[in-house]
Amino acid sequence: MRFKINNRFKSLFGCLLIVGLLFATPSIATQQDSVVAETTAEAPSTEPAGVEAAVADTTATEDAAAETATVSTSSSTSSVSAAAEEETTIDPQVYKNFTYYVLLFLVVCTIVAVVLKVISIYELTRKMNGQYNPLANNNIQATLFIVFLVLFLAFIYYGYSVWGAWAWKPAATEHGKDIDTMFIVTTVIITFVLVVVHILLLSFSYIYRMRLNRKAYYYPHNDAIERLWTIVPAVVLTILVLFGFFTWRKITNIPEELQKSALQIEVLGEQFMWRVRYPGADGEFGKRNYKLTTGTNPYGIDFNDKSAWDDVDGADIVIPVNRSVRFHIISKDIIHSFYIPDFRVQINAVPGMTNYFQFTPTLTTEEMRDQLNDPTYDYVMLCNKICGSAHYNMQKKVVVVTEAEYKEWLSKQNKYFNDAVQKEFQLSDNKESQDLSTASLN
Amino acid sequence: MSSTVISHGAAHHDSHDHHHETFLTKYVFSQDHKMIAKQFLITGIVMAVFAMVLSILFRIQLAWPDKEFPILEVFLGKWAEGGRIKPDFFLSLVTIHGTMMVFFVLTAGLSGTFSNLLIPYQLGARDMASPLMNMLSYWFFFIACVIMVASFFVESGPASAGWTIYPPLSAVPTAIPGSGLGMTMWLVSMFLFIVSQVLGGVNYISTILNMRTKGMDLWKMPLTIWAFFLTAIVGLLSFPVLVSAVVLLFFDRSVGTSFYLSDLVVGGEILPNEGGSPILFQHLFWFLGHPEVYIVVMPALGLTSEIISTNSRKPIFGYHAMVYSLVGITVLSFIVWGHHMFVTGMNPFLGGVFMITTLIIAVPSAVKAFNYIATLWRGNIRFTPAMMFAIGMVSFFVSGGVTGLHLGNAALDINLHDTYFVVAHFHLVMGSASIFGMLAGVYHWYPKMFGRMMDTKLGYLHFWLTFIGAYLVFFPMHFMGIDGVPRRYYAFTEFAFMEKWVSVNLLVTWAAIIAGLAQVAFLWNFFSSIWKGKKATQNPWKSNTLEWTTPVEHIHGNWPGEIPTVYRWPYDYSKPGHDDDFIPQTTPFSETMSSNLPHDFEGNEEAIRIQNEWNKQNNREIVE
């Protein structure tokens, strides 16, 4: 009995909700409220605009009450008056829209509830007529798994062909080509496994769905098969591991003479920008000491070291093509990550230590643009380690040019040891010598 | 020892009424494993809903980076001024979403619930080894949750350095506002949480080792128990390391030490810290952090094993292999943490070693997946909602697991580290898979927990919307990652190459919203069925394990009389020669003469002799 009453209440509530919405619809046609018109324009096109505005209208009285409530709170609480003021500036339409979506969701819930009720009534009548198949639901779910399998495979295919094409660009560095080969080999293997496993998993679910008067096959183990599917993955993995290990060593373990002969560039990460330092004519970076950081010397270069005097401040990262470049990655404040997707290059910038990444670009920016058929394309280096509010925009343009263009560009860049720094350096130098003399006196 | 426990419990039970249970001792400070399990579950569900709402908030930001949603300002105030989520708050959202999901939902909510519920039930114990510790475990967890949620009410906002809280970002409040009081609360919360895990873990292990009923030797335990056992061991060995990481970070922040800090100039200010190493934190963190993902996924695998076997009406294929692969995962999980740090500047040779160990761990995982499929083969599959979720779990475990071959490979990781590829990978393999394992468990053991059934149709609806939704959300992210889109980016608007992904983000966000709303079907189903669900029978799934021999109504001590004795392994489904398609563990072999196999007697010659005699008398031939 209790069940019945309860049920009636639910359906009554649902009916009321729908009827209310229907009634509200025509009333809005006469309304010419500009605010309403505005929001209907913004409303998603899939929704009938009239209904939305109608709901907004029917709930207007409640919103008015809510509004007055917020006003009263703002007057009563003086300490947070600023916050309250912000609240009052919120357009009442916002509340209306919100209520509308909540109501819409409730309607969807009601429809779902009604559909489920209809199904259960249908099942009950089948039961009464003695036609009910207790496995009907089971069969439906099994069939859905097969439908899902087809859709899933189509989805994978779509993903690979459309999004895969968006995502995939060949690497523009030497070591990047090895990585790409390995990536493709791995992807082929895993795609094969993914597809086969899903075909087996979902088609077995369908084929072996429960039937009356059938018993499952008692099959607790088969050592031969188990050994087989331990050994096969192990062998495949061994191949991948070796392949990967040697590639990784090749990338990270560079002989010392090659390290020295490479072009050296230092990149310093800080919130939320990158600074680039070229060693200048002497090929050596001046010493850096974070304690020397000042407004004019944000890099913290120690200008007592004379090799710092010709260090070049690069506006962008510009590197010559087909020449090995060794990047020294450091950080001023927190951990950042030096990441150039097109080059398959990434290493973290960690405060207190220097990380290195050496690679050889093989395509100039121009060549890449031609290849992609995109005349505005640029390589970009971006921060890939969470570092704060502007993490999402911490970038530096990377340009790969010919050797001649590189030399020309480099000659146009500013030096870190500029006029302002020189002046300050001389001042501090004098002061320091004074300090030293007083110290020695003491 | 165990016999004294039994007789004590039994005697206790006959005079049941002298127990005075107040509301407080029954529902709040309960020491009963069944109630604690429900407490863990409901707290876990609340946390999951909270974390899911956070995820939808940041998905909204990612899909419509230029659009204003004034309603957000109503709820979030200054964090969404003008209806747009602020970058700092965005980072808080991803941080707390990750923390809550990994620790509160998938660690405490999953293994807290089902270890507590099933360990005593399936082993035949009256309760946990230490009910008091069990209660404390829940309350420490609860306080941890409260503190974490409370950090949203702090002026500077909740922690926002990512769930991995790498210092110096998490250590220096001037670097990001969330590293102020919010971060301190995160650390305190995590400390309490670890205490909870250690209390729980000690309890699970000692219960499993000491309190099994008569006949329940280790090789007769259901795979769920094996999974909880190994999970507890992993947790007990790795969580204390996180304590040290957390405490040292707390010192760096609040006492002025320099364990993790050195050479910092933050916001133009030169900090005095010297000699620390941020990499040290990462080693300590990932020494827990990697085992943690197995802490999350192993219970889900255990639950799935049990559910797939029960509903396929077929023994789990390769029971021993399943156990050994869990053991393999347990051992290997401790020596792979370095694969999170390939590009941090860790010694590259070490990176190579970690890469080898990491890829080895794929072998036991693959064995598990194949064994599940072999279990389905020639089964008689009954699609309860629990079974649907279990199949979904296997699907996610495979789809997410295979991309581990990319990420575990140091050379490939150079380009994929910290991109959306990683996000896709772990959300499928440990996020969705574990959530599905947990939901499968909830649907399956609901009758045991609440004595009522959940609605099947709503369960199906919930499954399909969530299953399809999860794939639509996470699958496209792989491609963003391959293109080099980093995770934790507030907007994709600043880079030309990312603009094409905004359309995909729209798809992902809509899928997330719909899948999120679909959870209402679950919540409604879960909470309304507590009072209004159909009354459950004692063994609704025709299952073999011990928990289904207890009465539907919960009683103190689980079994009204003596604890049943166990005679056989838990997977005798559809055994040829037996009338029913299941034989509970409590059925002695003497009652199933027509279906016994020589293998069942484990070399007991007397039993084999009796069986052979019976076979001769009844003209039974055994075909194996």
Automatic annotation (TrEMBL), chain A:
<dbReference type="InterPro" id="IPR036257">
    <property type="entry name" value="Cyt_c_oxidase_su2_TM_sf"/>
</dbReference>
<protein>
    <recommendedName>
        <fullName>Cytochrome c oxidase subunit 2</fullName>
        <ecNumber>7.1.1.9</ecNumber>
    </recommendedName>
</protein>
<keyword id="KW-0812">Transmembrane</keyword>
<dbReference type="Pfam" id="PF02790">
    <property type="entry name" value="COX2_TM"/>
</dbReference>
<dbReference type="GO" id="GO:0005886">
    <property type="term" value="C:plasma membrane"/>
</dbReference>
<feature type="transmembrane region" description="Helical">
    <location>
        <begin position="183"/>
        <end position="208"/>
    </location>
</feature>
<dbReference type="InterPro" id="IPR008972">
    <property type="entry name" value="Cupredoxin"/>
</dbReference>
<feature type="transmembrane region" description="Helical">
    <location>
        <begin position="98"/>
        <end position="119"/>
    </location>
</feature>
<keyword id="KW-0249">Electron transport</keyword>
<keyword id="KW-0472">Membrane</keyword>
<keyword id="KW-0479">Metal-binding</keyword>
<feature type="transmembrane region" description="Helical">
    <location>
        <begin position="140"/>
        <end position="163"/>
    </location>
</feature>
<keyword id="KW-0679">Respiratory chain</keyword>
<keyword id="KW-0813">Transport</keyword>
<feature type="domain" description="Cytochrome oxidase subunit II transmembrane region profile">
    <location>
        <begin position="160"/>
        <end position="255"/>
    </location>
</feature>
<feature type="transmembrane region" description="Helical">
    <location>
        <begin position="228"/>
        <end position="248"/>
    </location>
</feature>
<comment type="similarity">
    <text>Belongs to the cytochrome c oxidase subunit 2 family.</text>
</comment>
<comment type="function">
    <text>Subunits I and II form the functional core of the enzyme complex. Electrons originating in cytochrome c are transferred via heme a and Cu(A) to the binuclear center formed by heme a3 and Cu(B).</text>
</comment>
<keyword id="KW-0732">Signal</keyword>
<feature type="signal peptide">
    <location>
        <begin position="1"/>
        <end position="29"/>
    </location>
</feature>
<dbReference type="GO" id="GO:0005507">
    <property type="term" value="F:copper ion binding"/>
</dbReference>
<dbReference type="InterPro" id="IPR011759">
    <property type="entry name" value="Cyt_c_oxidase_su2_TM_dom"/>
</dbReference>
From TrEMBL, chain B:
<keyword id="KW-0472">Membrane</keyword>
<feature type="transmembrane region" description="Helical">
    <location>
        <begin position="349"/>
        <end position="374"/>
    </location>
</feature>
<feature type="transmembrane region" description="Helical">
    <location>
        <begin position="501"/>
        <end position="527"/>
    </location>
</feature>
<dbReference type="GO" id="GO:0009060">
    <property type="term" value="P:aerobic respiration"/>
</dbReference>
<dbReference type="GO" id="GO:0020037">
    <property type="term" value="F:heme binding"/>
</dbReference>
<dbReference type="InterPro" id="IPR023615">
    <property type="entry name" value="Cyt_c_Oxase_su1_BS"/>
</dbReference>
<dbReference type="GO" id="GO:0015990">
    <property type="term" value="P:electron transport coupled proton transport"/>
</dbReference>
<feature type="transmembrane region" description="Helical">
    <location>
        <begin position="135"/>
        <end position="154"/>
    </location>
</feature>
<feature type="transmembrane region" description="Helical">
    <location>
        <begin position="316"/>
        <end position="337"/>
    </location>
</feature>
<feature type="transmembrane region" description="Helical">
    <location>
        <begin position="420"/>
        <end position="446"/>
    </location>
</feature>
<keyword id="KW-0249">Electron transport</keyword>
<feature type="domain" description="Cytochrome oxidase subunit I profile">
    <location>
        <begin position="23"/>
        <end position="567"/>
    </location>
</feature>
<keyword id="KW-0813">Transport</keyword>
<feature type="transmembrane region" description="Helical">
    <location>
        <begin position="386"/>
        <end position="408"/>
    </location>
</feature>
<dbReference type="InterPro" id="IPR000883">
    <property type="entry name" value="Cyt_C_Oxase_1"/>
</dbReference>
<feature type="transmembrane region" description="Helical">
    <location>
        <begin position="225"/>
        <end position="251"/>
    </location>
</feature>
<keyword id="KW-0679">Respiratory chain</keyword>
<dbReference type="GO" id="GO:0004129">
    <property type="term" value="F:cytochrome-c oxidase activity"/>
</dbReference>
<dbReference type="GO" id="GO:0016020">
    <property type="term" value="C:membrane"/>
</dbReference>
<feature type="transmembrane region" description="Helical">
    <location>
        <begin position="40"/>
        <end position="60"/>
    </location>
</feature>
<comment type="similarity">
    <text>Belongs to the heme-copper respiratory oxidase family.</text>
</comment>
<keyword id="KW-1133">Transmembrane helix</keyword>
